[in-house]
Automatic annotation (TrEMBL), chain A:
Biological classification of the source: Bacteria, Pseudomonadati, Pseudomonadota, Alphaproteobacteria, Rhodobacterales
Protein name: Cytochrome C oxidase subunit IV
Keyword Cell division found: no
Localization per record: Cell membrane
Transmembrane segments: 32-53, 60-80
From TrEMBL, chain B:
Alphabetical UniProt keywords: Membrane, Transmembrane, Transmembrane helix
Record lineage: Bacteria, Pseudomonadati, Pseudomonadota, Alphaproteobacteria, Rhodobacterales
Topology relative to the membrane: Multi-pass membrane protein
Transmembrane segments: 12-34, 54-74, 81-97, 117-142, 154-174
Subcellular location: Cell membrane; Membrane
Main localization of the protein described in the UniProt heading: membrane
Protein name: Nitric oxide reductase NorE protein
Cross-referenced PANTHER family: CYTOCHROME C OXIDASE SUBUNIT III, NITRIC OXIDE REDUCTASE SUBUNIT E
Ranges of residues in domain Heme-copper oxidase subunit III family profile: 15-175
Any matching Pfam family: COX3
Amino acid sequence: MKELITAWLILVGASAATTALAVIGPETIWLAPVLLGLAFVKSRVILAAYLELRQAPRILSGVTLAVALWFVIAITLGVIG
Amino acid sequence: MAQVAREELPHDLMIWVLIVSEMLVFGAGLWAFLAVRITDPPGFAEAATHLHPVSAGIGTILLVTSGLFAAIGAQRNSARWLLLAALGGLAFLWLKSHEWSSLIAAQISTETHPFFTFYYLLTGFHAAHVVAGIVILAIVALRRRSAEISAGVAFWHLVDLVWVAVFPVIYLMGAA
């Protein structure tokens, strides 16, 4: 239960930070990578804690790598645009 | 020969096949959105001003909180927590319907701009998953069979997982 609550706190904190950065943050080229970086953190937390992949660390590493690659391409497209 | 310990997947294998398939579909849709955005950054930025990032942020918090309730419901085999999770999904849909109705009132459709073609497609497809998830949560809450609850709750977390990528790409990066 403690792990789930910790995961939820990270998810709420990252979601609030994402929204605040987009609404009142500075308009820099770093905004897209930061917003998507926070989304990657949230995805990792959902995979590990909510979807319980922390019980299978090697599978979690593989899925995290695939998700990270997706975010790298999304960040690249975001920065170009 | 050294034996490598085999890791057991949590939840049923078929639900993982579904999760990975859905991630691929949404992932491709979001990449396409970002690729088309390169062709018209000012148009996408202008279109994104019609959305409400704070409302979408609240929706994100509602969904991840609902995900917590679903996870607790699965751990405790509790119908009450699962129905609370479904209620969180309904609240998310209420926010979404409010957003769509204000856009439709402003005569913004899928034809208005490519931004809105992707917006309606991706948020609509996600909302369809939320509706399916609510129905699934209600059914597994009533039947209270642990294998079904595990699969139903995993589907609900997929809804969370997809949204945490849709939210910044559509609502925030369009304007960034």
